[in-house]
Amino acid sequence: GNLWIGGRKMSPCGEYRWYGLNTGPLTMSYWAVGQPDANGDCLISWQNHHYYWGDHDCDYKASFLCEVSNI
C-alpha cells in the first residue's frame, strides 16, 4: 500500500523537510512526474507509482515507515 515517509511541507513557499526527531531539508527526492502538485502538505510514497513520492492531504490513512538507527 501507500506509505507515509516522514516529510512535510514546512513553509508557504513549498519547502519540504523531514519531520520528527531528525528534521532537516530533503537531501534527495524521488518525486513522481507532476509532483508535488499542492494537493497536500505531507509526503507519501505511492505503491501504484513504483513508490515514487507525492504530496497528499495529511489526514489520508496510510501505513508508515520509521527510521531506525544502526545498533
Task: Provide structural commentary.
The structure is a single chain. The chain is mostly beta strands. Helix content is 0%, strand content 31%. Strands 1, 2, 3, 4, 5 and 6 form a six-stranded mixed beta sheet that branches. Strand 4 (42-45) and strand 5 form a beta hairpin. It is globular, with a radius of gyration of 12 Å. The termini are far apart.
What is the molecular shape?
globular
| Proportion of residues in helical segments | under 10%
The description of the largest β-sheet is: 6 strands, mixed
For the termini, the CA-CA separation is 28 Å
Provide the low-confidence segments as ranges: none
N to C succession of SSEs: EEEEEE
Separate helix tally: 0
Helix/strand/pairing category: mainly beta
Kindly provide the radius of gyration, computed on alpha-carbon positions and rounded to a whole number of angstroms.
12 Å
Tell me what portion of residues adopts beta-strand conformation.
25-35%
- The number of distinct β-strands equals 6
Name the average pLDDT: 88
